Amino acid sequence: MSSPSKRVEIGLKQREDEYTQYKQYHVLVGTFNVNNRQAPPNILLKQWFSQLTDKDEICVPDIIAVGFQEIDTSGGAYIYDDKRKENEWQDLVNRTIQACYGNNTKAKVEFFLLKQVRLMGILLFVYVRSNHKEKCTYVSSASVPTGFFGIAGNKGGVGVRFLFYESSICFINSHFASGDGQTTRRNNDYQTIESTMAFTDGPTYSLKDYIWYTSSTSAGNLNPSSNNTTSHQWWKINDHDIIFWCGDMNYRISQPNEQVRQAISERSTVPLQEKDQLRCEMKLQNVFMGYYEPPIEFMPTYKFDPNTEVYDTSEKLRTPSWTDRVLYRSKRLKVKMNNETEVDTIKTIEYSSANEIRFSDHRPVSGLYAVTIKYACDEKRSNQIREELNRMSDRFENEAIPTIDVHPRPPEIKFTNVRYLDKPSYPLTIKNTGECVCSCTIQPSSLSPSFQYVICSPAPPYVIDVKGEQHVNISFNARLRKESISEILILHVENGADKFITLDITFDNGPFGLALNEYPPTFYDNDTKKYIYSIEKPATSEHIVEMINDPPILYIALIETLKDRSDLNMLQIFSNETQDSLDVIPIRDQIYEHHYDFSKYSTAEIFMIFVHLLQSLKDPLISFEIQDKIFSNSAQLNDSSRAVSILVEQLKGKERNLFFRLLVLLKNYWPTKEQIEKTDDEAGDAFNMCIDILALSIFHEHLDRTQRHACILACLNEEKKP
């Protein structure tokens, strides 16, 4: 599209009140962390769904979007296409909708399930009244995991977007990192979801396709390297007219537990809101820029003793907090109905928690909103305005060219000696120095896989008013197996001149990102019957031998330390609480210094840094060639003996030694099938995450998830046989 044409489209958008007919609809949005409980068969969630209008009448919403977190994943349900648990919650939601709206209204109201999307325990349903069915188009869903390696789905977000009449709507359901002191991690979870979630009306090939996303205002096309001649659109979260973001965001109240409980007992919670971490982070513009949440008039929704009204009395005695929230954002705060009366685009009717639903340690939260939707367009009036804008286009061509200034000048991002797992950042300020509103985005200059590790917060596109400015923080997640990166980022300005940002990164990979044969040799002292825990070559001696088939001494040191631990519990290590609070940077730094005494670190820290080392290997521990042989015959998928025999035959040298050392380490701690079936809800979730991360670290991403899981379980179950 030429620049004059783009200016006409922008002008047409700015004057849409003159040719657009608006209409208000009701939207119900809810969030509920169900604490790994099964969907209760004998109760409904009516209090969560039934909200009052301003006239104290039961309101039948036009759209219902409900998000769950921590749905029951017990019993070893690690195969992600198993929809049994998902279907149980869908059935409960269906029955609740029918009970709330299908039987108690003068006219029969029916809903249909527009879309559902799940990421492990995070689940989102979007329902629409059946009379709107034909007006729901361009329906798409997406998910972004933010757990370990950025792939574990215990934390992350899911989304559904669609066009409702003429307005684009997006619903996000998320589950952020837990823990009182994990505000930064929660912020990172938000930033990752906001910047990387993308929707498309075509097939999704890989994350590389998202890199080539451009703003939907210019009808972003599929990756140009694709042979598919069909043009597909892409949408990021911020492209939508209306956004509702709900979930267990896990932000806490930064105040002593005793004071919080005292304030709750006195029903004096307004001062507590000033200490609410989410509100504080929003004021600092660290998260949810442009989003709004009405005053909270309900008590903190976490953490309760299940089936009671009592806040946590367990040994951990957690501080009550508003972890469960619903926020919203609209491109335009107000519109003119019939081009006359100005109304809010989104008006909160009710925002409350359902205190009578008590089977979880959270209380459900829901909001009812009156949303002004673009109902229809007057094509005749639209064409008249378009003609006016075309006539004015040449006259204002020079004035309408947006210009920006960027600071620092020139923008040069240089990160040096970046270590594995570092996340360096670079602050950038974009100033609108022109005479018109400008829109810009940050994108790569070439198809580079490195760009997926670049996080821009807030996420583009950026719309900057005249004389206004936009602050952007550009960070990089250092998880690449590279020595350096030299890229050009494009600060693309709609209708204006682009700016260029250089990105130069040098990595200090240390022991990460190597192949096993690139580590220093491993030596053994036959006199002391001990390994020599040093990378320095020992003095020549007949007692000192090089162990050419043994793994690097770093791996041996970690495994030997773990063997001496009595608390090597896979379910505990991979529990949400442990993973969310884990900090492996200190042990990583010690590894960089080649100090191999890990006795001061926790078992979880030692095990997870071991997993990081496996994940960072240049080639997976089980080579792609061997993986292909294991799955060359689909019948071998369920033959654990066959899978192990292939590994015994094919694995050689250091890889063979390290793999079977790992299996021996795990065999005494791996739960049996009977133990898995008896696990409680939270342990079942940890088991799923354990399988996912172990399989990915050993096989990398060559196989699909189901194959990785099947292979690692085959090996572990074979080792468990007497």
Automatic annotation (TrEMBL):
GO terms for molecular function: phosphatidylinositol-4,5-bisphosphate 5-phosphatase activity. InterPro entries: Endo/exonu/phosph_ase_sf, Ig-like_fold, IP5, IPPc, OCRL-1_2_ASH. Pfam families: Exo_endo_phos2 (PF22669), OCRL-like_ASH (PF21310). GO terms for biological process: phosphatidylinositol dephosphorylation. Residues 23-378 form the Inositol polyphosphate-related phosphatase domain. It comes from the Eukaryota. SUPFAM superfamilies: DNase I-like. This is Inositol polyphosphate-related phosphatase domain-containing protein. It comes from Adineta ricciae (Rotifer).
